[in-house]
Specification:
Order of helices and strands: HHHHHHHHHHHHHHH
Strand content: under 5%
Protein name: Iron complex transport system permease protein
Number of helices: 15
Helix content: over 70%
Largest sheet: none
Keywords: Cell membrane, Membrane, Transmembrane, Transmembrane helix, Transport
CATH topology: ABC transporter involved in vitamin B12 uptake, BtuC
Main location: membrane
Family: Belongs to the binding-protein-dependent transport system permease family. FecCD subfamily.
Membrane topology: Multi-pass membrane protein
Number of domains: 1
Oligomer: single chain
Structural class: mainly alpha
Radius of gyration: 20 Å
CATH class: Mainly Alpha
């Protein structure tokens, strides 16, 4: 009942909240482009974008325009896309599995995607954004199938799938380490290990052209299944009683989460806790209805990831931390809090 006032919040207020969130996303992206070793005014950023998009003739420093367009803006857009996609995956998995701790990182999907991507990079199966994404997708699907089998073999239940996810994560992390140790040279090993912690250092516009459409498309598909996700939160029997094709929708949404996770992992590496923390925060603000929860989750995830990227670049002078380190610093305490509340008797 504590969400009753939020759940029945007027749509006008919700639209206002979403407008504010969208404006906040635009603001943090502008800040991400402006903040760095070479500070750039927000007005300069706007002029650089206007020159490229609308063909305006603002006179700008070539250095500033190059930093904005070729480095920082693409980085911010990929961060926003990855944050939105990973947060959506968490919201979907929490509904499908009826477990507040479900998210790609905890369930081992991110670890499997990392193994698939590293196999492509190190073992010579080809290299490129699409090839990496394909390898990561295969790894993500394999990880989720393994976790599902382990959970089913141990008796099922929401707690069991989390324990199975921990085991699956350890297995695929071990496989990744084995591939790196036995097949990579020293330079490759350093690059892969930094990438595995979550890195936006190497993203460019081709990555934006993959990440943004996948994130937007994934969001639209999730919205199509918003009512079905509402039904899943009451259990599969309740969903089936409402005429929902449980098996088909579950397979489709699990495949979607694997695709979203694999795409983002192939671009930015394995980043944890976004899919765990953000859906809970959004649910607290807009309530449990997925018609409102999914947009709030996507926008909040995008904002969180862009802010985490800013923090990763400024928290240590003259050094850029892996973004996964920053998300873990925020996410680990939140994970402990959610775990405590989930285990506490009603």
């Amino acid at each position: 009942m504590r969400h009753a006032s939020i759940t029945h919040r007027g749509w006008g207020t919700l639209l206002l909240l979403f407008a504010i969130a969208a404006a906040a996303l635009g603001l943090v992206i502008s800040l991400a482009v402006s903040i760095g070793e070479i500070p750039i005014p927000v007005a300069t950023t706007a002029k650089a974008v206007a020159n490229r998009v609308f063909g305006t003739g603002f006179e700008l420093s070539r250095i500033h325009e190059g930093i904005i367009w070729d480095y920082r803006l693409s980085r911010a857009l990929v961060a926003a896309s990855a944050g939105a996609a990973l947060a959506l995956c968490g919201a979907v998995l929490q509904a499908l599995l009826r477990n507040p701790l479900a998210e790609p990182y905890v369930l081992g999907i991110s670890a499997g995607a990392s193994t698939g991507a590293v196999a492509v990079m190190i073992l010579g199966f080809g290299y490129g954004v699409l090839t990496l994404s394909a390898g990561a997708f295969v790894g993500a699907v394999a990880a989720f199938l393994l976790v599902s089998l382990l959970a089913a073999g141990s008796g099922g239940g929401t707690d069991r799938i989390i324990l199975a996810g921990v085991a699956g994560s350890q297995l695929f992390n071990a496989l990744t380490s084995y591939i790196v140790t036995t097949s990579a040279n020293a330079e490759q090993a350093r690059g892969v290990m930094f990438w595995l912690l979550g890195s936006l250092a190497g993203v460019r516009w081709p990555d934006v052209y993959l990440a943004a459409p996948v994130a937007i498309g994934g969001f639209l598909v999730c919205m199509l299944y918003a009512r079905a996700l509402d039904a899943f939160t009451f259990g599969t029997d309740a969903a089936a009683a409402l005429g929902i094709p449980v098996a088909g929708i579950r397979i489709a949404l699990l495949a979607l989460t694997a695709l979203l996770t694999a795409t983002m992992v192939s671009i930015v590496g394995s980043i944890g806790f976004v899919g765990l923390v953000i859906p809970h925060a959004a649910r607290f603000v807009v309530g449990p209805g997925h018609g409102r929860l999914l947009p709030a989750t996507a926008i909040s995830g995008a904002i969180f990831m862009v802010v985490a990227d800013i923090v990763s670049r400024v928290i240590v002078p003259q050094q850029v931390l892996p973004i996964g380190v920053v998300t873990a610093l925020f996410g680990a305490p939140a994970f402990a809090l959610i775990l405590y509340k989930a285990r506490r008797p009603a």
